[in-house]
Amino acid sequence: MTWTEWLIHLIDNPLVVKDGVSRMRSWRAPFIITLYLGLLGLFGYAFFVLAAIYPQGQRVGAAQVGASTFTALALIQLSLVSLFAPALAAGAISGERERRTLDVLLVSRVTPLGIVWGKLVASVAFMLLLILAALPLFAAVFLFGGIDFQQFVVTQLLTVTTALAMASTSLFCSALFRRTLTSTVVAYGVAFFGLVGTLVGGVMLTVAAYVRTGNLVASPDAHPLLFANPFYAVNQLINEPSGSPMHIGRLLQLMFALGGPPVQVGPTVEPWQATILVQLVIIALSLFGAVQLLQGWRPLVPRREDAEPEPAEPPELVEGSRA
User: Fold this and answer.
1) What is the separation of C-alpha 68 from the centre of its chain, rounded to a whole number of angstroms?
2) How far is it, in rounded angstroms, from Cα 228 to Cα 236?
3) CB atoms near residue 10 (< 10 Å)
4) 115 exposed, middle or buried (CB, 10 Å; 0-12, 13-18, 19+)?
5) pTM of the model
6) Which of 113, 126, 146, 257 is least crowded, fewest Cβ atoms below 10 Å from its Cβ?
7) Are 198 and 226 in contact (CB under 8 A)?
8) Nearest Cα to 73, choosing from 131, 32, 123?
9) Strand pairing partners for 247?
10) C-alpha angle 86/157/27, rounded to 5°?
11) Predicted pLDDT at 178
12) pLDDT tens-digit readout, 151-174
């Protein structure tokens, strides 16, 4: 299969249309959109009131209110995306197996990569719809200032890559386990570890390294686990003017708990850049693992060109028919 045919199979995927239409036809789609926007707007308004009553931070006036409200909206949106993504993708393949329709997909012309890609796009497309529907709430914050266009774009990009990473790992769990309940529970466990576990573990390791060095005057360097956390990346992107960049050598030094003075080797990486890079690696590994699992389930069906030709008629019958 050439690259052109491969791209056509990925773009022209019937599973995207099938799952997308079936999901949007049910009452759950408008209910989830309403619930998503309602929760986001409710928490955003609550933080807006708190930021207006109790100002804090380096910014003052309307800029401080806008920055605080935007940070709260971005973190709440990340939480809601992480909550909805496993529920949408964890039963994509295991549900087909439970309905006994997976074998039909595997013997069709759709390749295992096409099945995984179609299920991923169908799941992430609904998440993108939720993110697009919430853009007016984020745009309203620009009326107060305190946020520039680059911060807005990078925050939305982090949200999209987080949704892709959550959906990819959930899809891998769906291909790994036979039951949707099991894959959903494991997917939520992985999501909890990736968001809350890395945040808590990174803070604890940062404080431990800070106390071990004994230099209690300078601000501590963040542990690499925090650089892989989208919550930390969003917070640093909005509230730190410099972006908190760090050299790759220093990140490796902190990762392996090496002593000595800080290593200033290699290019500098900001937290949001490291987070997106880690998430892209997780997406690639999850999709590769899901494709390999589906290839193990795929029945050995001979291709059309490899199929045996039909047996020819005996010469006696051919001569008889001519006579």
Assistant:
1) 25
2) 12
3) 15
4) buried
5) 0.82
6) 257
7) yes
8) 131
9) 268
10) 40
11) 86
12) 889 999 999 999 999 999 999 999
- Rounded to an integer, what distance in angstroms lies between the CA atom of residue 219 and that of residue 232? 16
CA distance linking residue 151 with residue 157, whole number of Å:
10
Distance CA 155, CA 136 (A): 15
CB neighbours of residue 55 within 10 Å: 13
Q: Are 88 and 127 in contact (CB under 8 A)?
A: yes
Helix (H, G, I), strand (E, B) or coil at 247: strand
Specify whether the CB–CB gap between 67 and 57 falls below 8 A.
Answer: yes
How do the domains of the chain map onto residue ranges? 23-298
Query: What is the pLDDT averaged over residues 23-50?
Result: 84
Q: What one-character-per-residue DSSP string does 13-79 give?
A: -HHHHHHHHHHHHSTHHHHHHHHHHHHHHHHHHHHHHHHHHS--SS--THHHHHHHHHHHHHHHHHH
First to last CA, the chain: 47
Residue partners of 199: CB distance under 8 A and separation at least 6:
225, 226, 229, 231, 232
196 CA to centre of own chain: 15
Rounded to 10 deg, the angle between the 149-176 and 62-89 helix axes is: 20
Contact partners, residue 220, CB within 8 Å, separation at least 6: 206, 207, 209, 210
pLDDT at site 78: 92
Under 8 Å between Cβ of 232 and 199:
yes
